[in-house]
Write a structure and sequence with these properties.
Layout (H helix, E strand, L loop, with lengths): L4 E4 L7 E4 L4 E3 L9 E5 L10 H11 L6 E6 L18 E5 L11 H5 L13 E5 L4 E5 L2 E2 L21
Parallel strand pairs: 4-5, 5-6
Antiparallel strand pairs: 1-8, 2-3, 2-6, 4-7, 8-9
């Protein structure tokens, strides 16, 4: 049986991205203060309606202290705006990994977290949990994502991909 270790989210994985209102959001601001569910949405997917995002939000709603949901999309910030009439998403922050900041390449955060393909796009939605101590599951020299095709098992727990 393989042991999965937890490591602090180091500098190479700490990103600064724009939110849906073009404000800078720094991951470092939340590390060590909040439990963070970090989801990288697949290219071309709707960040607010992605099945993994919906499942994680339902899971978070069952917790007394839900933490923070950061959803990273390759789309531009203006396309991440929540449509009128949708319920407020105060616990969910939509972030753009489209680049635009000085020295930042499009897809830079996804690449750092190891979820982008060789062409630079995210082919499958990936989900990471960062605990309140700022640590993430770690395997083979990089953060370990959970299974995202069926992110919750029948007991409401989390599954891990066997291939990682």
């Amino acid at each position: 049986m393989e042991v999965i270790k937890r490591r602090f989210v180091g500098r190479p994985y700490q990103f600064e991205l724009y939110d849906s209102k073009n404000r800078t959001v720094r991951l470092a601001r939340y590390l060590g203060r909040h439990r963070i569910e970090l989801v990288f949405v697949k290219h071309g997917g709707d960040a607010t309606r992605d099945p993994v995002v919906v499942a994680v939000r339902k899971l978070m709603a069952t917790r007394p202290n839900p933490g923070l949901l950061l959803v990273v999309s390759p789309e531009l910030p203006q396309s991440l705006r929540v449509p009128a009439g949708d319920p407020p998403r105060s616990e969910m922050v939509l972030l753009s990994d489209a680049g635009g900041r000085r020295g930042q390449l499009p897809g830079g955060a996804a690449d750092a977290w190891g979820v982008s393909s060789p062409d630079g796009s995210v082919k499958q939605t990936r989900w990471f949990t960062i605990d309140r101590a700022g640590q993430v599951a770690w395997h083979a020299g990089r953060p370990l994502a959970g299974e995202t095709e069926s992110p919750l098992d029948g007991a409401g727990g989390r599954k891990r991909t066997g291939s990682e």
